[in-house]
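Let's practice the habit of predicting before peeking. Look at the sequence and jot down your guess about where helices and strands might fall. Then scroll down.
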Amino acid sequence: MELTPRLQDIISILKERGTVNLRDLALELKISPKTAKGYARELYRLGFVEIDENENLKLKNENPESVENLKKTVELHDNEIALLKKEIEELKEEISRLKRTSKK
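Done guessing? Here is the structure:
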């Protein structure tokens, strides 16, 4: 999974400054504080950042190797999810066939 350009912008800002408050980030990116918080939550969920009680954002780990490992993990899970979705569709088709057969 590749980060969106906006998420990459936030990572770049954090690499440059170290820490940034969500309100300041919103002002810099010309977005609402709510939108900035959404981006921060996404980066937190992906394991890129930490958010403290004062809504300050900082990179969790600047080690590029760790970031690459994290990206590989996300990609692996994306692949697993895709396979599960395919299995669900196959099961739905099988259930549909069984329902048609039982009605006859």
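How did you do? The domain at 5-59 is CATH 1.10.10.10 (Arc Repressor Mutant, subunit A).
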